[in-house]
Amino acid sequence: MQEQLESVRKSFLTDLESFPDNSTGLQDLKTKYLGRKGQVASLFTHLGKVDNADRPKFGQLLNLLKNELQSLYDKKELSISAKDASSNRPYIDITLPGRSPSNGSIHILEQTLLEIKEIFKSIGFNIAYGPEVDDDYHNFTALNVPEHHPSRDMQDTFFIDPQTVLRSHTSNVQIHLMETSDPPLRFIVPGRVYRNEAIGYKSYCLFHQVEGIYINQNVTFSQLKGCIEYFVKKMFGPKKKMRFRPSFFPFTEPSAEVDMWDDEKNQWMEILGCGMVDPAVISNVGYDPGKWKGFAFGMGVERIAMLKHKINDIRLFYNGDVRFSEQFS
Amino acid sequence: MIVSFDWLKDFTQIDESREELAEILSSIGLEAEIKPFPDILPGVIIGLVENTIKHPDADKLKVCTINDGVKTHQVICGAPNIKAGQKIPFATVGSVLPGNFKIKKANIRGIDSFGMVCSERELNITDEHEGIMVLPDGLKIGENFMTSYGYKFSSIEIDITPNRPDAFSHYGVARDLATYKNNPLKPLKIQNAKGKNLEEITISIENQEDCPRYIAGVVNNIIVGPSPAWMVERLKASGLRSINNVVDISNYVLLEIGHPTHIFDSKKIKNKEILVRRAKKNENLQTLDGNNYELTIENLVIANSNDPIALAGVIGGMKSSVTLDTKSVLIESAYFDPITIRKSSKVLSLSTDASKRFERGSDPNVCDKAFHRIVQLLQDLAGGELVSRMIDIYPNSIKKQKIKLRKSEIFYVLGLDIAMENVENILAGLEIDFEKKIDSWICKPPTFRPDITREIDLIEEVARIFGYNNIPIDNSINGNYNFLESDSENKYDFIRNYCAGLGFHQIYSNSLQNETDSHRSDLIPVKMLNPLSRDMAFLRTHLIIGLITSAIFNIKNGTNNFRLFELGNTHQQLKAGLEGVLESKHFAGIIFGKNSMDSIHGEGTFEDLYSLKGILSFIFEIKFNTKLEYKEESFNCFDGSYAIFINRQKVGYMGKISDSMTSDIKINKSSLYGFEINLEPIKGMLNRNNKFKEINLYPEINRDLNLVLSSNQDAGDIVKLISKVGKKLIKKITPSNLFNNSETLGLNLKSLTFSIVFQHPSKTLEDKDVNPIIDEIIRVAEKDFLAKLRV
Question: Best residue in A93, A116, A133 to probe B by mutation, most B CBs within 10 Å?
Answer without folding.
Answer: A133
